[in-house]
Here is the input.
Amino acid sequence: MLKKSDLYSTLWKSCDELRGGMDASQYKDYILTLLFVKYVSDKSKANPNSLIEVPAGGSFDDMLAAKGDKEIGDKLNKIIANLANANNLQKVIDLADFNDEEKLGKAKEMQDRLSKLVTIFADLDFRGSRAEGDDLLGDAYEYLMRHFATESGKSKGQFYTPAEVSRILAKVLGIGDDTRQDQTVYDPACGSGSLLLKVADESPRGITIYGQEKDNATWALSKMNMILHGNEVADIQKGDTITNPQFTSHGELRTFDYAVANPPFSIKSWSNGLENEYGRFELGRPPEKNGDYAFLLHILKSLKSTGRAAVILPHGVLFRGYAEATIRKRLVEHGYIKGIIGLPANLFYGTGIPACIIVLDKNNAQSRKGIFMIDASSGFAKDGPKNRLRSQDIHKIVDVFTKQTEIERFSRMVPVSEIADPKNDFSLNIPRYIDSSEPTDIHDLNAHINGGIPNADIETLQKYWDAFPTLREQLFESERTGYSKLTIPDTELQSAILESKEFTELSDEVNEITLEWFNKYISEFEQLDKSTKLSILVSKIGEDLLAKFKSIPLLDEYDIYEQLMTYWHSTMHDDAFMIMSDGWLEASRPRKAIDDKERKLTETPDLVLGNGKNAVKYKTDLVPSSLLVNRYFSDNKNELDALTITAADAQQELDDFLEENTVDEGILVAALDGEKITKASAKSRLSISSDKEEIAALNHVIELFDKTSKTKKEAKQAESLLTESILNKYGELTDKDVKEIVIVDKWQTTLAARITQEVTSLTLDLVNRIEILNERYGETLANIDTRLGELDDNLNASLNRMGMKIDELVIPDGDWT
Here is the structure.
């Protein structure tokens, strides 16, 4: 059984075999080519009617047969050529030269490197990778593309649009269950095809794909990507879209129902060789040195009269002047722009600058009276050197855009009349219309002078007082008109809030909602099998979770949703995939941990039976051993913990005694003789010692060594017995046992704890703010004057004791400290 996480790590480690001779932009071609050959070979075995023909001499089995061969590089090239020729994939899958000595090494080095690489791919089995309706292989391809983009740097990372951004574009277009298979989507700068594939994911009935890509190697990636995602008939053309568009009919651009694009930002050479404008620049000609609007206008012209598009462009297109200002004004006046979504900076691999999504919609454009704007620039997570949109960020953006929901400091429907106002002059710069900055934290001078926390500051926490009506009175009392003071020490704030009746009621309500929500899907979890569509399942339970927490005060339902999705991606998906592939019982069995140091494929074991070379290491993926311990062996674990503590105490007692008696004038200094004391050396010294004090100390050391050894041995034996009992228990579990352990003990317990964290974190925010206010106004001006006076008096008293007076001190000229 192949988990997603196993597949990803295996594939990425395979890249280690190629690093050194080339950079990421080059070695990706080798890895992805082998991935492609392995995938189509496995699929051909599972389905002889596969659209991709795997000829004799053109399969992955033929690659395996070439392992260890001195001519392995040349043989791999020929195998790939045979597969390419059989499927008209020349210049698509045969771009990487597996016989390149400069990149892969000469003779034995190349032979070993390629043999190891082929061996790694041999362990992967893709015959059932899409059986559960989840695109394992496609996601693996995306995983590799993301890593290659990260390592390729700014100049070579533009072939990949982050999947999170791609999902937003696909969803804001309104593609869904009603989209017909004969409807079309087009990307004029399709790169590796990720945007087009995300659109296809949103259309369960299918959609017809068209794309064009200028770079030859990236075009080949896109062709492979389409096949790996089951879109073999996608029409991906090669060439420069602006100067040589491939999708034309009778001298006109072909039009499409939908379009998506992440074109190269601000390209300067966009018009080089341009002869036919195809009527694309009716609203104005873009500046010669900046092609952003050239792509936007090309897409607009390529849409049907009811077509929609979502395009990623740099923020500059929203406010730059001259020719671009004219085009922007006409776009607004014609009503073509439906919405603008401002994204966080540093999302993309080709640039760190912030970008935006411009949503075009020709349908009823003339009647459009406003542009819906979203400032989503602050919703992201750090992910290594880049920023990344979280599941909650994606869902919130899509929800708000789809429902046109106005949220303070986040989204707003901006009337065209306001955009056209002379003070704005058709600028679409989002901060002009949405102030997303946090309110200024204003200090109260009166409070600084006279003390007390201003009631105005306390009232900024009104959302908490609305949710907990009696809590404010419990925490604050009036000090003077307009000012209050804490009724308890600030160190007791959190416990007071956690123990308050209203917070307890909220916590209980959240737990009850979580339990009710989860229990609703237990039967579906129990019925997981090869026909389950995991993407549909997680979407359903996620939407329900959002709905259930929407009305709960203080909690952000998207934060709760993020807890589910984070756990889903890290654990639940792999668990479900194992269950669907192998069944509940088989998936629950421990497996031998991979320990292949030569190929750099090793796993940290969860259970170890035996010692040293005889140790057998196990992984317990679906049912962690800790869950069995909690259910069946809690007494044994308590006994083991007690023995472990006893052993640690014995070791500490020994260490303390040795440290005390082996330094300076310690009793055992002579016994050391420059060496570390062991039980054997202590016995040896004892046999020749005549000093009574030293003999007593040596006897005690030997006793401590024996005690430490005995307690450690007892703890080790108890650990071995527990491990053996656990391993035996796995074999005794029934199907019903496994389901209950995984669904209730593992999934439900973990999700409930994660959601409870969100509730607890509410108190931290409230406590933090109250502590800031209390500290800010805790020192009044009068208090400070009093303290200064006391310090002055103390100084004078000290000087008097020294026989000096303050007015007798002479401060020398110049710098001094």
User: Anything to note?
Assistant: The mean pLDDT is 89.
